[in-house]
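Quick entry between incubations.
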Amino acid sequence: QTVVTQEPSFSVSPGGTVTLTCGLSSGSVSTSHYPSWYQQTPGQAPRTLIYKTNTRSSGVPDRFSGSILGNKAALTITGAQADDECDYYCVLYIGSGIRVFGGGTKLTVL
Amino acid sequence: QVQLVQSGAEVKEPGASVMVSCEASGYTFTAYYLHWVRQAPGQGLEWMGWINPNSGALKFAQKFRGRVTMTRDTSITTVYMELTRLRSDDTAVYYCARSSISAEAEFDYWGQGTLVTVSS
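Done. Structure below.
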């Protein structure tokens, strides 16, 4: 069974930069996993931030960026703002039409 | 504009089945996959599977095979997700989400979610 790993929680200071990661329990993440990232505030449906590793979804500010760092996918937020405080999820494509969500990262801005 | 509108909340007893609908509008219904994703209270998101509204082809996460099915009615641009043999740990918000017809495509639009509560 494929497990996608994310940091359970992270904190960043207002105006600071934070990098959240998305890994695989076995193996490395590559662009062939087409990593995507979603932002979710409590009680709301997720919002798409990044897809195909580093493509920003329409309307997403350029302080959100995606990449591959080492053997993981990464979401970097520069100039963190108070309303960035919410949950972030990555999704990896593992083949045969199958997607797997990471467990999510709860980001605190303080 | 693209909209995915889901049916209302459900309360079911253990062992029963539930069917949740997702009505699509604002785009060509048969040109995009529709996925189902669920979120148990206080937990993360979990991908369940997708349906190709054009062909009716299906793909499910292994965890749900044998208990979930997805169907579509192209005349009313609606997809349905039925989960059978419900257990208390199926209590969750169920979302439909759209992706382009490409095996690896991202979710670009989401429904508002449907709360399914399984309780005796």
